[in-house]
């Protein structure tokens, strides 16, 4: 069947079976391979994207459920050459090693910072419960998210 | 001075693609005409395969082929091999049970590959897999390691007692004599829990046979594509080496589990030929990964330490049973032997050590190297034993260690278990760690915790490891089937840009950055002008890959040597251009200068001349491209002290790590940011082993911990922020860079620090993983039931 949605601000449509997961649709139908699959039990968070502004594990949602939705993936986070503050902070603070968990981490953290612009370290760690990283020991991921929160608050103040 | 050279905290080159979602991992690749493979796996731990009926599956829509062990046999393909020959005490070679690509006659663990289904779509392949009928005759499974020797069943019918080898190291008579003189003997029995590596990217492979070219290409999640090429051509025989290209693109973590040559990647390559050259893709789901990735650790040990009345170590005696799983994986035999027994001296000058290891087959997934591989098992054993000795003698565990350290004046130091430590300063790392954690102030902190009803504990671990896996002659004398050198090629282009090709592979370690820093420094050119290339056997020179913290110490040194050759050649060209004698040319910061003058030529001018050799030294080859191999004279020996401070809630048995201090001596450091990141990741894995992780099979051989719902991975709120210091380095003598390697230290040193801290807090040791249940039960002074082990 045909599924249509907005992905990273562009209207797209493609073929999906009723059982096709959103992550499969993104990766195989649209070729957006930045969203990863790390598990089959909705635990690892490598697949996190935003659907209508909230973080969602795209392995836990059917493509057809996203019919008509606004979807943002890691590929849609930078504005042209300008990285999202979280992307920049992950690089600046060495918040990634193999990079496989990174898109999910960034998408998940972006949702956190939207609802809680100045989280404590503890709150960041608790929020990341649903995202597994095997490489970094989380130390620099947490650091990067706190730093990005700082930057984003600064930018928000400047805009006021 | 180059700006982003050795020692600089340079941000990583590779990050841009990963943070924007443009990494290219194996499953991201889709090839024209690609078909999909699904493996049918044994649901039984041990079963005879009486027959397989594939006819219904073959008739299903979209199915291109259904292949079994019989087809593998008919095509004359060889078995997977373990490349390291270990000999038993009596001199007999280890018993290696055949490890076919697809099971033949018997299935030997839950998850053993029984058939492969290739279809147009993944869904069709899955559906067809359910239509394959396998007639199994269930056999008694061998599951528990401690009973493997008389389990009443044989994993490999021809291997008695399920014993692969019974190995020993050290002078048993000297050790027995020393125990006879001991004033005190400390004894310990411990388990090193079985772990699942769990790189977040599951394994994947795409095999493609090109009938026109008679050429094979394999994309695979590999830490060592050249080793894949070698084993698949020389042993499995699926493609000749000169017609096989192995590409390991971006790889999402390995931790050892992607070193090995598995059946799946061999099968997809072979299957591609069977379906007339359609590319065949397979990606593991996480459940498959749990069942079929090689697991790690899984030892049961008894150890004894003999001390004199002053607390000096006289001798150590260790017996270990190691679980190999159902088959010997690629490196499996050397993990509980040469990477374990040889490390049992730790940081101590114990004069006599004896160790023997019995390695058993069981009907469980193969066990092989996982981050640290043998060295975490050794370090955990020594450091819990030493801590227990301190407790029994009423000594400060730091002071008992200090008293027995190999003193910094004693290097190079020959241990009684074969290794020669090149450099180290164990007191320096201990002192720095004690200072950082405020060891002396612990009693006051403990009292404060007590007032809040919490049990506070502090634990030390002084680990050592042998890294930079190489010395080919040494590993060869120990049974390795290959040499463990590394190779490099450094190539200038006309415009002065550099490609640095390495036989190592980066899957998170940041080689594209570190190696560029190294080459930039050596050649005096901007970091931005260096591109590091790895992971493709048709681009990079030969290589041995990345494991055992060897990439920089062996592969980096090969790059350094290739750079040195370029500089030597550059001197000849510069001397010609400057009409000076070659001996008078000095190279510094990218310029060739006639000594004592200001007459010089830049690297760029020299490179241009080498490619446009209109005015050129007679007899000299044009071009600026050099290769080098490096085979070091010794391992490197990173070492350090870790301290864990934690609190336990006696009501729930829950452990909270308050502080984790890690002071490491990695020798010289090229990029401190990357090195610290490696330590952080290792620490989380070590803490995971100590508190959370454990692979559990039930009596019938079913894996109970087969998903992230059941196997507890460390999450962000399970670990603290770490305090990591890597400054106090003693340069290694095994390479000119003075580097030692940092990839495994965290996982090696952390478990004992955590467990010793728990023991310190509650007064008795619990086995890993020290789950809240086990800690709580220990506090109630009751026995933890066996099933929870
Ligand atoms: S792939 Fe979605 S949570 Fe793991
Ligand atoms: S960076 Fe590798 S899993 Fe997080």
UniProtKB/TrEMBL annotation, chain A:
Pfam annotation, one family: Fer2_2
Xref: Gene3D superfamilies: 3.10.20.30, [2Fe-2S]-binding domain
Signal sequence bounds: none
GO MF annotations, alphabetized: 2 iron, 2 sulfur cluster binding; metal ion binding; oxidoreductase activity
Keywords: 2Fe-2S, Iron, Iron-sulfur, Metal-binding, Oxidoreductase
Annotated InterPro entries: 2Fe-2S-bd, 2Fe-2S-bd_dom_sf, 2Fe-2S_ferredoxin-like_sf, 2Fe-2S_ferredoxin-type, Beta-grasp_dom_sf, Diverse_Oxidoreductases
Sequence ranges assigned to domain 2Fe-2S ferredoxin-type in this UniProt record: 1-77
PANTHER family the UniProt entry points to: OXIDOREDUCTASE WITH IRON-SULFUR SUBUNIT
Name the record gives this protein: (2Fe-2S)-binding protein
TrEMBL record, chain B:
Pfam families in the cross-refs: Ald_Xan_dh_C, MoCoBD_1, MoCoBD_2
SUPFAM superfamilies: CO dehydrogenase molybdoprotein N-domain-like (SSF54665), Molybdenum cofactor-binding domain (SSF56003)
Annotated Aldehyde oxidase/xanthine dehydrogenase a/b hammerhead domain residues: 20-140
MF terms in GO: iron ion binding; oxidoreductase activity
Domain of life: Bacteria
UniProt keyword annotations, A-Z: Molybdenum, Oxidoreductase
Database matches in SMART domains: Ald_Xan_dh_C
Protein name: Xanthine dehydrogenase family protein molybdopterin-binding subunit
Source species: Marinimicrococcus flavescens
């Amino acid at each position: 069947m045909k599924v249509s949605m907005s992905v990273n601000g562009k209207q797209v449509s493609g073929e999906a079976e009723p059982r096709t997961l959103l992550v499969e649709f993104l990766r195989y139908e649209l070729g957006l391979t930045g969203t990863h699959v790390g598990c089959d039990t909705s635990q690892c968070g490598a697949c996190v994207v935003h659907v209508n502004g909230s973080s969602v594990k795209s392995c836990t949602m059917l493509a057809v459920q996203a019919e008509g939705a606004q979807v943002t993936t890691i590929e849609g986070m930078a504005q042209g050459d300008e990285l999202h503050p979280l992307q920049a902070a992950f690089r600046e603070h060495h918040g990634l090693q193999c990079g496989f968990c990174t898109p999910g981490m960034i998408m998940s953290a972006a949702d956190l910072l939207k609802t809680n612009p100045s989280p404590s370290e503890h709150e960041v760690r608790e929020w990341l419960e649903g995202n597994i990283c095997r490489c970094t020991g989380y130390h620099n991921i947490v650091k990067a998210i706190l730093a990005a929160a700082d930057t984003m608050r600064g930018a928000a103040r400047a805009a006021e | 001075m180059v700006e982003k050279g050795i020692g600089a905290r340079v941000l990583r080159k590779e990050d841009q693609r990963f943070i924007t979602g443009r990494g290219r991992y194996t499953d991201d690749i889709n090839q024209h005409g690609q078909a999909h493979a699904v493996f049918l796996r044994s649901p039984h731990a041990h079963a005879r395969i009486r027959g397989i009926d594939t006819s219904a599956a073959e008739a299903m829509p979209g199915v291109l082929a259904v292949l079994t062990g019989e087809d593998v046999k008919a095509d004359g393909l060889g078995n997977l091999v373990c490349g390291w020959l270990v000999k038993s005490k009596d001199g007999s070679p280890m018993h290696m049970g055949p490890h076919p690509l697809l099971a033949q006659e018997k299935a030997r663990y839950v998850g053993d590959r029984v058939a492969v289904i290739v279809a147009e779509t993944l869904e069709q392949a899955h559906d067809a897999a359910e239509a394959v009928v396998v007639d199994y005759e269930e056999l008694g499974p061998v599951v528990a390691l401690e009973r493997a020797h008389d389990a009443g069943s044989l994993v490999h019918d021809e291997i008695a007692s399920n014993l692969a080898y019974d190995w020993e190291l050290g002078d048993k008579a000297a050790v027995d004599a020393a125990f006879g003189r001991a004033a005190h003997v400390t004894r310990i029995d411990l388990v090193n829990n079985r772990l699942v590596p769990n790189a977040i990217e599951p394994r994947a492979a795409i095999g493609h046979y090109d009938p026109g070219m008679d050429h094979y290409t394999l994309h695979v999640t590999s830490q060592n594509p050249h080793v894949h090429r070698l084993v698949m051509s020389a042993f499995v025989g699926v493609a000749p080496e000169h017609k096989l290209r192995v590409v390991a693109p971006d790889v999402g973590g390995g931790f050892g589990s992607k070193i090995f040559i598995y059946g799946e990647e061999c099968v997809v390559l072979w299957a591609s030929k069977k379906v007339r050259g359609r590319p065949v893709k397979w990606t593991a789901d996480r459940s498959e990964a749990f069942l079929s990735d090689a697991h790690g650790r899984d030892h049961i040990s008894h150890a004894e330490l003999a001390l004199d009345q002053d607390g000096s170590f006289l001798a150590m005696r260790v017996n270990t049973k190691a679980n190999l799983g159902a088959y010997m994986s690629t490196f499996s035999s050397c993990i509980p032997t040469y990477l374990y027994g040889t490390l049992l001296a730790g940081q101590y000058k114990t004069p006599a050590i004896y160790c023997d290891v019995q390695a058993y087959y069981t009907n469980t997934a193969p066990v092989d190297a996982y981050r640290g591989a043998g060295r975490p098992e050794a370090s955990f054993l020594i450091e819990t034993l030493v801590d227990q000795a301190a407790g029994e003698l009423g000594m400060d565990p730091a002071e008992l260690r200090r008293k027995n350290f190999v003193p910094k004046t004693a290097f190079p130091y020959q241990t009684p278990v074969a290794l020669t430590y090149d450099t180290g300063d164990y007191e320096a790392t201990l002192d720095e760690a004690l200072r950082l954690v405020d060891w002396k102030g612990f009693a006051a902190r403990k009292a404060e915790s007590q007032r809040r009803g919490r049990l506070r504990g502090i634990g030390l671990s002084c680990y050592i490891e042998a890294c930079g896996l190489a010395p080919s002659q040494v590993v060869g004398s120990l049974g390795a089937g290959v040499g463990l050198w590394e190779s490099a090629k450094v190539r200038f282009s006309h415009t002065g840009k550099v490609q640095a090709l390495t036989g190592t592979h980066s899957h998170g370690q940041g080689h594209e950055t570190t190696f560029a820093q190294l080459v930039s420094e050596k050649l005096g050119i901007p970091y931005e002008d260096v591109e590091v290339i790895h992971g493709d056997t048709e681009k990079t020179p030969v290589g041995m890959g990345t494991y055992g913290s060897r990439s920089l110490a062996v592969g980096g040194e090969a790059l350094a040597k290739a750079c040195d050759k370029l500089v030597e050649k550059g001197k000849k060209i510069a001397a010609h251009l400057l009409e000076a004698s070659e001996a008078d040319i000095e190279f510094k910061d990218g310029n060739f200068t006639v000594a004592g003058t200001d007459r010089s030529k830049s690297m760029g001018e020299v490179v241009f001349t080498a490619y446009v050799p209109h005015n050129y030294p007679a007899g000299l080859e044009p071009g600026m491209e050099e290769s080098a191999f490096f085979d070091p004279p010794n391992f490197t020996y990173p070492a350090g002290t870790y301290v864990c401070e934690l609190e336990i809630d006696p009501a729930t048995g829950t452990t909270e790590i308050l502080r984790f201090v890690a002071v490491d001596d990695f020798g010289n450091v090229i990029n401190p940011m990357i090195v610290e990141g490696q330590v952080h990741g290792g620490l989380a894995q070590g803490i995971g082993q100590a508190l959370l992780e454990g692979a559990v099979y039930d009596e019938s051989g079913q894996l109970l911990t087969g998903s992230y719902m059941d196997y507890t991975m460390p999450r962000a709120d399970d670990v603290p922020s770490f305090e990591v210091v890597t400054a106090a380095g003693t340069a290694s003598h095994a390479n000119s860079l003075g580097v030692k390697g940092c990839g495994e230290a965290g996982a090696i040193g952390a478990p004992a620090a955590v467990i010793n801290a728990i023991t310190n807090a509650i007064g008795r040791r619990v086995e890993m993983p020290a789950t809240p249940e086990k800690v709580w039960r220990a506090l109630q002074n009751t026995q933890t039931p066996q099933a929870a082990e």
